[in-house]
Amino acid sequence: MSTVLLVHAKGGPPLGYVLARAATRADVHLLALSPLPPTVAATAGDLCASVTTPADEERSDLVSLIVSRARAVGADAVLTFSEYAVVAVAEACGALGLAGAGDAAALARDKRMMRRTWQRHGLPQPEFRPVTTWADLHEAVAALPAPMLLKAAWSAGSTAHQIIRSPQEADAAWLRSREVMAESAQLGFAELHVAEADAHYVVEQIVTGTAAQWFDEPGWGDYVSVEGVVADGVFHPVCLSGRMPTVEPFTERASITPAPLRADLQDRVVDLARRAVDALGLRDCGTHTEIKLGSDGRMWLIETAARFGGAMTVPQTEEVYGVDLVGMLVDHLLGRTVAWPERVLGPAQARGAAGSLVVLAVDGRGAAWPDRRIWDFPAVRDAVALSEGSSLSVVPESSLPDGSTVPVYDPAGGANTMAALCLLSAADAPIVLRDFTTLVDALPTALPPAGPAAAPFRPAARLFRPAVRPEGVPA
């Protein structure tokens, strides 16, 4: 049997799901750069030929560590599903002569280089400015129309996003983003290979999107994602996922497969995704491309990743279309013949619909809950009336244990302040959207109130007091 080295870090599809599918294709050796979720740790030994957790001193040269471990186990393929390990794994595959994302992997991680590449190719995207210093920040703020968005160039999950509505807000946004990136690194949500990544940012224009001209039903968010794969340098789109509206600033609340677009609109979206992926020059990897939808058919590229979408995007694709993206990518990296979909799959090919909801302590309008609540999935399941035939479950490895206090939503923290991840299956995508809307509205009362021991409720944005002033920022 062939041998695969799977590099595990934070983010990506649930590890238990990935291991279950990869282990049917090859002997899997797991290199754990992040702690295994408790729900997976107990069974990893049954699914993996070995599980290795490197010592801290071994991580100083991550590429060498991956190469060394791959050679030790005789790996025929090396892969990761984590955004934070994509670049290191791509470089390791290059050193080993194995199929991988290639030298272009960094272009799909660093939002500055990604946008420069698309700019050279004339692709539609928000106007932007790279930012490394305080002076860069103020040059960007002076050049771009307000409001604008400050992003950490190597972040994921909407972490460290800050809306700047006027030049007077720039310094506070800069300080807060840097603080959040430092906090995220302590939690393991940070780039693992590029040492200076925490100093790289981008400021970009906030373009005005609309869902009304793209979807027949109200309630959809104004962007979609195209899930796909690059095999031998050729992009294969697989399907589209729709969204609920984001929570300010741009934190994702829910992903729903399929995205119920008309065939002609879907084709236009896929064409832009293809041009975006082709411009980056990726070789062999999953892809996840997010596209903002505007009026009169306008579109803007948000970002492309050299890996599959995180959370439950991949399991949703398998449930709805019967396509095992993890297993198919493993087969491809091992040199086996894979029958990728001949054309992108749409609502006509879907077997029902599936969606994943991030539980955040904000209501449907994005306002903070009036009090603190305890996460209790059985209480939610029993209290919320969903559509007939809909099925709701929780993703244990991506959720707090029942009985935990739901975190206060921090706009700068993005998905770092989530309480749980829920999966819903239904007859079609509009039903998933309606059920998620019902669920979001019900959560503040369906969940038990937190006891007096819980910290007092205060909106997280008001708690910020910069502890450290970064170099170059005037006092």
What do you see in this structure?
By secondary structure, this protein is of the alpha+beta class. It has four domains: 3-98, 3-Layer(aba) Sandwich (Rossmann fold), CATH 3.40.50.20; 127-205, ATP-grasp fold, A domain (Dna Ligase, domain 1, 2-Layer Sandwich); 221-351, 2-Layer Sandwich (D-amino Acid Aminotransferase, Chain A, domain 1), CATH 3.30.470.20; 352-463. The chain has helices at 15-22, 38-47, 62-73, 86-96, 111-120, 134-143, 170-187, 263-280, 313-321, 325-333, 377-383, 429-446, and strands spanning 3-8, 27-32, 50-52, 77-80, 128-131, 148-152, 162-164, 201-205, 223-231, 234-243, 254-257, 285-293, 299-305, 353-359, 391-394, 420-426. The strands form three sheets. It has an eight-stranded antiparallel beta sheet with strand order 13-12-9-10-11-14-16-15, with helices on both faces. Strand 12 (285-293) and strand 13 (299-305) form a beta hairpin. The model is unreliable at 456-475 (pLDDT under 50).
Features:
four-stranded parallel sheet, 4 domains, D-amino Acid Aminotransferase, Chain A, domain 1, globular, 12 helices, Dna Ligase, domain 1, eight-stranded antiparallel sheet, Rossmann fold, alpha+beta, 29% helix, 475 residues
The name of the CATH architecture of the largest domain is: 2-Layer Sandwich
Determine the structural class based on helices, strands and strand pairing: alpha+beta
Q: What is the top-level CATH class of the largest domain?
A: Alpha Beta
CATH superfamily of the largest domain: ATP-grasp fold, B domain
Shape: globular
> Largest sheet, if any?
8 strands, antiparallel
- Give the CA-CA distance, first to last residue: 62 Å
CATH topology of the largest domain: D-amino Acid Aminotransferase, Chain A, domain 1
- What value does the Rg take, in angstroms? 21 Å
Number of alpha- plus pi-helical segments: 12
Give the number of DSSP strands: 16
Mean pLDDT: 92
Secondary-structure element pattern, one letter each: EHEHEHEHHEHEEHEEEEHEEHHEHEEH
Q: Strand arrangement, largest sheet?
A: 13-12-9-10-11-14-16-15
- Which range does the strand content fall in? 15-25%
Low-confidence stretches: 456-475
- Domain module count: 4
Helix content: 25-40%
